[in-house]
Amino acid sequence: MSKSFFFSAFVLLITLCAAAQGGVKFSDLSWAEALDQSKKSGKLIFLEGYADWSQPCAILEKYTFTDREVGAFFNFNFINIRMDMEDIAGAVLAEEYEVRSFPVLLFLDGNGEVVHRGCGAVETDELMTLGRAALGAGSLSEMEQHFEDGERSLDFLVDYSLMLADACLDRTKLVETFFSELPHSKWMEESAWAMINLNVSDPYSEPFQYLIAYHDMYGLKYGKDTVDQKIHDVMLDQLIAIYEGEDLTLFATQALRQLMSEVDFDKKGELQSLVNLKAADLKANWPVYAENAVKVVQEQQVEDPDQLNEFAWKFYLFVDDEAHLSQAKNWMRGVVDRYPSATYYDSYASLLFKLGEKKEAVKYSEKALQAAEIELEDLMYYKNQLKFFTEGQ
Hints:
The protein is α+β, with helices and mostly antiparallel strands. The chain has helices at 3-21, 31-41, 55-64, 68-77, 88-96, 124-135, 140-148, 154-166, 172-181, 190-199, 206-213, 215-222, 224-243, 250-261, 268-283, 286-300, 305-318, 322-338, 342-354, 358-374, 379-391, and strands at residues 44-50, 78-84, 104-108, 114-119.
């Protein structure tokens, strides 16, 4: 063989190794240039849509994109580009492709049509699976077409639902279309239960209301534990939304409490305590708030210091029952032993003072002031608290 053959083979080997070692190579093409190159080459575009502040994006880029096998596969099969979804050009695409979380992983053709998609800080095997699905059968676009064409088999619906979930896409349209086509007499069938279990998250939707109305029958057919868990999870998600301020109204809390009263399910009592706690907080009903805060700490085995401190501080400000104050004091004693910070010392000292343990209150108020000095906090508040406790002796 000629020297030139060996030289060419050697260069090719070096090139392939370099590509594999470097992970995924993202080009600096603009969106228009990427579409043009895709049309000319026939390759799909792989677009990572990111946000600078997103921790999952940082994890994906540090670990998954640097993998040699992933790099070799994606560099050979796709035109790889990255875009900040919060700059001007990226925001346009984020709106067009309904991006609601980062990172989003889009596989598109030269016309900008989505062939497949994923989301989140996926691991190497998951990203490879997404890439292979985009190139072969079973892509999201194919599944969408099958659904549009009337495919409603159980296996298909399960696969399609999971694919939508993996892509972080809203499944409301899927649920609405499915149940609008299905008579109520068939809502107990296996495919209908699969749709409810996998996709229904709105506790006030008709399918979920139907599940509540006939939960005993669903339980007999598909297992009480499984049905109870679904009901619990949907109501818990609604409660989390209320607590996180997405629907921070007394009406939403009372509506959820009414809904929970209509059905019995496992761990219902724990959720009721949380709902009652929120309602009491919104209504400033502090005796009921204290009663349910104690239940929540016991039932949920709350150990988070910030959560315990929030309860304890409201007890100090608004609760007069000595038994409840003593329980809050015990919570905070455990907190300050594990997390000696100015804020926690201050809450503990305040509870001690309200319970009449003024000497101990001064002691821990001094600890709060010392901790505040170390933590470089504003000292005026802590000095005033110490003065208040000292003069109150």
